[in-house]
Design goal:
single chain, 174 residues, 5 helices, globular
């Protein structure tokens, strides 16, 4: 297994996928990683909908401007939040579900699976479309969708790109 920093540095959005199926074991590992994410007060406000059905993936793609990869994906994970689980008067579930989504991306990378984070929340039209398609209750917030698939070619795979920018770092004050 590659070291942790290498996984982080080489994680990329992969939008073209091979026909290789993603097994249930890999999906379970990805979801276990998602549920290891930190959450405010350890509330763990998330729910996950796994979609593998090609017709549903195609219909899901219609909810996004940039969701063209979904019909060819091996699976998608829809990250949802249950705000009723919050004991705080503010919406910490946004950070919690962001951390869970990032863990999905990193776990997929560890397994050699490509991924793309598709933002849903706070776009009402996206949330409504996915709620309807996937029978998600009205009181549940659809937060994000992560498209998953094995990369179509090695050229589409994981290459480190330099993004470090020292001009964005401030010490002790701005």
């Amino acid at each position: 297994m590659e070291d942790c920093l290498s996984i982080i540095y080489t994680r990329r959005s992969v939008r073209t996928y091979s026909d290789r199926e993603i097994g249930d074991e890999e999906i379970s590992k990805i979801l276990k990683a998602a549920m290891q994410a930190p959450s405010a007060g350890n509330e763990q406000p998330w729910h996950f909908v796994v979609v593998k059905d090609k017709e549903k993936l195609k219909k899901m793609s219609e909810a996004f401007t940039f969701g063209q990869m979904l019909p060819n994906a091996g699976a998608a994970v829809v990250v949802c939040a249950d705000p009723k689980l919050s004991k705080y008067p503010y919406e910490m579930w946004v950070q919690d579900c962001s951390a869970a989504t990032q863990n999905i991306l990193l776990a997929a990378r560890c397994l050699g699976i490509g991924s793309v984070w598709l933002g849903v929340y706070p776009r009402e039209e996206r949330m409504a479309a996915l709620r309807k398609l996937l029978d998600i209750p009205e009181d549940i917030v659809v937060f994000s969708v992560v498209s998953l698939g094995y990369p179509k070619s090695e050229n589409d795979f994981f290459e480190a790109k330099e993004r470090f920018n020292k001009d964005r770092i401030h010490h002790e004050k701005w």
